[in-house]
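Re: your question about Rod shape-determining protein MreD

S., sorry for the slow reply, the queue was backed up all week. Below is exactly what I fed in.
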Amino acid sequence: MRFNRMLLSATLVVVALVIQVSVLARLHLPGAVPDLVLLTVLALAMVYGHVSGALIGFAAGLLADLAPPADHAAGRYALVLCVIGYLAGLVKPETGQLKSATGPMAVVVAAAIGSTLLYAGVGALVGDTAARHVGLNSLLLTAAVYDLLLAPFVVPALMALARRADNDPLAEAGSSKAADVSAGWLSSGTGLRIGGQRGGLRVKAAKARVARAGRIKGVKRL
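Result:
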């Protein structure tokens, strides 16, 4: 991953995690908590592709595992978001532009349901049965509804920001300026123009000598 991608991804993931822990988790909504970190990973994965999506998902999940109040084994949510980020990156449009909102919304619903099922499945493997007591069906429904309601305000904005940062117009302006400077240096500082001017002077001097000789010969004939 390029440096601007890593910097933007780290900033967005940290901001999303802080908002999720300090604001969304304290709303005490019934069922699941709106997963802003998941939506951030989805948006970045659908712009950067499956490899970057997996890396961003793993880092975001690990950060969420370690952030207080953490009540589960570290690495559990990292595995979930790594898989989700990889799969979301596979649906990245070839042109980079989305033709409609249907595709991203379907990805959000599938990711919300898939991440909840995968998280509960990994928890069952390590002996965590909290999902059974809360109600898995309730968690699936509320996770899909909350993330779907939050997605139109988060996913398009983050995807547009990621595309803009990835294009890096400042770098393009700097490279074009450097190209102009190098072109000017080649045309004026390497002696190519001087050589061309010297060549032109030689041609003009030769023509002048030929014309002078013709006039002298003409005088002799007279």
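Residues 170-198, 214-222 have pLDDT under 50 and may be disordered. The CA atoms of residues 183 and 221 lie 54 Å apart.

Happy to talk it through on Thursday.
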